[in-house]
Write a structure and sequence with these properties.
The structure holds 2 protein chains of 2 kinds. Chain A has 9 helices and 2 strands. Chain A is mainly alpha-helical. Chain A has 2 domains: 54 residues, no CATH class; 108 residues, AhpD-like, CATH 1.20.1290. In chain A, α3 packs across α9 and α4 packs across α9. By secondary structure, chain B is mostly helical. Chain B contains 10 helices and no strands. The longest helix of chain B is centred in the C-terminal third of the chain and has 28 residues. The radius of gyration of chain B is 18 Å and the shape is globular. The chains are: A mainly alpha, B mainly alpha.
Amino acid sequence: MSDTVLKPPPHTAPTAFTRAQLDWLPWLEPLAPEALTPRHIASLVDAARVKSPYFRLLARDPDALEARTRTDKDIFYNPDAGLPRAERELAAAATSRFNGCLYCASVHARHAATYSKREDDVDRLLESGVETDLGERWNAIVAASVALTATPSAFGPEHVDRLRRAGLDDLAISDVIHAAAFFNWANRLMLSLGEPAATPPS
Amino acid sequence: MASTDADVIDALVGITPGSALDALRARRPEARAHAQATYRALFTPQAPGDVTAHERFAVGTFVAGLHGATAIAAAYAKRLAESGAAAALRDAVDAAIKEATTHGPYGRYPAGPLSGEDTAGPVYRVGAATREALGARLAAAFEHTHMLVFHPRDAAPPSLQALLDAGWSTTDIVTLSQIVAFLSFQIRVVIGLRTLAGRP
């Protein structure tokens, strides 16, 4: 058995949730860029992802990676009604905050802040956690995401009712469910196959 | 889960053609199709590599059982039986679920400002009798799976080394990780949509 666990190069591990750009260092060997077959490249969906060690590691199971990525894109990018993009990202960030994935939280907190223009609220979610008061509509989305993320799930009819009172229709509620559920997928891969690293100042 | 082509989430939620939830899922057609494609890739793969059907469905049953999702666990247990798994293996999966069930997420953060949020919880070690029935390779997978389900922020290189030591290759570990992570999604979509359907 020649496979080994990788020792990441010297780096600064982040110790707090942040909206800053982080790197991600794999603990298992990604496929080498020059070793990628056309099937592997197709599984990346976006050609630029050949630069990402995370996606080149997941490309070892290309069918699973490609289906994962196409699921992800429709949940977050489908522009047909439902929950606004900013709040899909909020559900992703809240889920990542609750599970403890600093890397995922950084990416989706940045997106939530960009699309909502509510940088201070996003920063308070990162700093103080999922109980922070962000106003009732965001509180309802965060509470639903957190309840669904608990194992076993604590998501119940009271969460549906609260989301409806906050103005969400059923498609928007389904988007909250899918965004939070998807980050229970993503967090587990990111947390267990490598580690975040602070980006060195340029 | 009548056949490999029937949409698993629809079946587990009880979504029928023409229902309100059917229309809702149709608004996100790629997510619906590719959640099912992920299921096929992980549970009925065209190129299964070195991860057997028994291993895939045993882990699937274990993950659903750890979530307390009884009906979903029963569906995966049925597929485990249909894959030809011996009764001893199926009983061992049930025993492992009973041994390992707890509440998550818990775990530790890197030392610093988040240390105040560290939450203690069990690290699962498969019991001796269960380990004998599962075999060393599946027992290692179950210990890793328990961490991924309940305390994923405790993940660290030694858990991957334990899998390598038990005969899982790097590629096998990617597949195992995807199985556990995907089911963490599928189970929550099913619970969420079922709850929504119950509140018309």
